[in-house]
Design a protein that fits this description.
This protein is of the alpha+beta class and 262 residues long. The protein has a domain of 178 residues: Alpha-Beta Complex (Ribonuclease Rh, Chain A). It is built from seven helices and nine strands. Strands 2, 3, 6, 7 and 8 form a five-stranded antiparallel sheet that branches. The protein has a two-stranded antiparallel ribbon with strand order 1-4. The protein binds 2-acetamido-2-deoxy-beta-D-glucopyranose (4 copies).
Length: 262
């Protein structure tokens, strides 16, 4: 009797353990006190400290030809872990350059995330799936804090939902279209703007930090919001930062076009 009871208790404990194993999670990194790109000593644990990609850029497109996404919203390009000086690594783990991003997100129950991506995270020249594979393989696999070792009881591909979820969450907190519109900067086929006014409207909403504005043929088509991070990309705190390099984005200082999508 006693031994049977003991066995049962052990079996139960085993079951509980099995459930935790199935639920593998990213490290919480509670109390991470080192801000990426700002450490003054060596940080050994790159699961709770983004390195060497300590600058995280949430990059956005304004695509008018062909049009991508809603008329009144910018769209997502990606989330890029750059070194703290404008250089970056790419395609850091070809074994994890998955070719089934849609299936992976569905397999983890991220259907809402996927449907958001189908509106706000599309390319101008291929399918969403191909674009997501490209962004994940080129940039996502270089995020040190999303490496398999950084998950407790790693379940293969579980870093993928973390990458896409964090990127979408950041994007939702960065409504470029509204911020520009609030400053009277709206798409127009005839009106033009001063680059300084565009930059001021965005910087004001990025804790006073500079936001990279990119132009093609004198029309704005990209913005990059720079961040440094306490902790991991999955669960950490993103702190607004300014660009860490001198790429000027090719915009003229006056007469900047902001072309309509419709
Ligand atoms: C910051 O941390 C990285 C990773 O441990 C290390 O290589 C680098 O030297 C550190 N920077 C400074 C200034 O100590
Ligand atoms: C399509 O996107 C690429 C970047 O991925 C950009 O360089 C190009 O200008 C875009 N093309 C059009 C027609 O918008
Ligand atoms: C996606 O692809 C990877 C490797 O190619 C595979 O291990 C995984 O099982 C696939 N996931 C789904 C949900 O199809
Ligand atoms: C997605 O990211 C948000 C913001 O970081 C977080 O609150 C939420 O728990 C994440 N969801 C999943 C499914 O990881």
């Amino acid at each position: 009797m006693t031994s049977l009871r003991k066995l049962t208790a052990e079996a139960l404990a085993g079951l509980c353990l099995a459930q935790i194993v199935l639920g593998g999670a990213p490290k919480q990194c509670a109390g991470a006190t080192e801000l990426s790109c700002h450490n003054t000593t060596t940080i050994a644990d790159t699961c709770c400290f983004n390195y060497p990609g300590g600058s995280l850029l949430q990059t956005q497109f304004w695509d008018t030809d062909p049009v991508v996404g809603p008329d009144d919203s910018w769209t997502i390009h990606g989330l890029w872990p750059d070194h703290c000086d404008g250089t970056y690594d790419s395609t850091c783990d070809s074994r994890r350059a998955y070719k089934n991003i849609t299936s992976i997100l569905k397999s983890f129950g991220n259907d809402d995330l996927l449907s958001y991506m189908e509106t706000y995270w599309l390319p101008n020249d291929s399918t969403g799936e191909e674009f997501w594979e490209h962004e994940w393989g080129k940039h996502g696999t270089c995020v040190s804090t999303l490496e398999p070792d950084c998950f407790t009881d790693y379940q293969p591909t579980e870093e993928v939902p973390s990458y896409f979820n964090t990127t979408v969450s950041l994007f939702k907190s960065l409504p470029t279209y509204e911020w520009l519109a609030d400053a009277g900067i709206t798409p127009s086929s005839s009106k033009t703007y001063k680059l300084a006014d565009i930059q001021a409207a965005l910087s004001k909403n990025h804790n006073g930090e500079t936001v990279y504005v990119g132009c093609s043929s004198g029309a704005i088509n990209q913005v990059y919001y720079y961040y440094n991070v306490y902790g991991s990309v999955a669960t950490g705190q993103f702190v607004p930062a300014s660009p860490d390099n001198s790429d000027d984005g090719n915009c003229p200082s006056t007469g900047v076009k902001y072309l309509p999508k419709n």
